[in-house]
Design a protein that fits this description.
197 residues; Arc Repressor Mutant, subunit A; Tetracycline Repressor, domain 2; 10 helices; mainly alpha
Amino acid sequence: MAPRARGPRGGGADTRADILRAALTLFTESGYDRTSIRAIAHEAGVDPSLPRHYFPSKPSLFVEAMGPFEGVSERIALILEGPRTDLGHRLVTMIVRLWDSPDHGPRLRTLLTSAVASPDIGEVARSILFDRLILPLSRGVSSTDVEGRATAVASQVFGLIATRYIFQIEPLASASVEEVASRFGPIVQQHITGTSA
């Protein structure tokens, strides 16, 4: 086998995306503990030093690979569009659809259970999920009490996720997307906007 080139690749190669795809494959097949950065680099066809160039740590690479972070800015923009009165409904709908999807759902469940089991992963996961999804959404609604409102929303969202997908408590576990959004949307609405309507 020819030696791998050092440094970022040219020719339009998306090295970061290649590393994420390789990491997703190996983390899914072998789990977090049995997957090494070197193995991910080999799977991606890049120099062993490159994953560290794009991701500061193995936990951060794991969270990025397992989470649905592609297009997150576009998703937030869509939630913020439309009438402010049903913003909470739109947010809950998006979250439930992500977790229900055959592509993202298993990845998100693996991410959550791994975050609970490993403090290193948990710290990175909390930071990324909160900083990339909920905090920007809160900022987009108002510049007042941004972190307080975002934290309140996070408590509802993560509670919903744990109840429906981890503990699978009925009737929430088998409720439709619309049923879940109708029940939790007004609560999230009140937290994120300060009003129930």
